[in-house]
Amino acid sequence: MSIFLYLCTLYSTTNHLLTLIPYLKMKALIIGATGATGKDLVTQLLADDTYSEIHSFVRKPMSISHPKLHAHVVDFETPEAWADLVRGDVAFSCLGTTLAVAGSKDAQWQLEDAVKALGFSCLLIFQPSVLIRSNSDRGIENFTIKAFKFLNKLGILKRCRPMPTEILAEKMLSAVYNSPKGTFTFALNKIFSL
Known about the structure:
It contains seven helices and eight strands; from the N terminus they run αβαβββααββαβαβα. By secondary structure, the chain is an alpha/beta fold. Strands 3-2-1-4 form a four-stranded parallel sheet. Strands 5-8 form a two-stranded parallel sheet. The radius of gyration is 17 Å and the shape is globular. The two termini are 23 Å apart.
């Protein structure tokens, strides 16, 4: 990952290097590629000529195929068995969970804290609010999104503004080119302003 981290710093400090992006073919890694945000991110990575390879790590085969996409079906309980495959220029994690699934707020933050402890020289953490999944058939989720949109129009609960998963994926991808060294957390308003 050090190549990405170095290039990311160069992009943010030397604007003329942005013109080199079409000639720099990067290898992207993605965990969580079968979720709503992950699927949108994979689609955007495949369309981006900056990336020559996209390697996804999934529990079951993906429904999409593309010459640039390499889907690795792995057992997440035994990461040492596939650790040699985790080599690239940029890594994306689209893993997320709801409070109901995690069981507590503290449990929701365990993964974030563990990633911070790895000591990446450039780490970008996105904390969106309610996500709008295209073609969602979840009745309660759709009702909640409509309720939040209505309340947002009244100026209430702006910090819980729903965000389409394709917009979140787009913001994650664009942040790769604009971030200096360090650990940065992007809450909802910062994500929308990227």
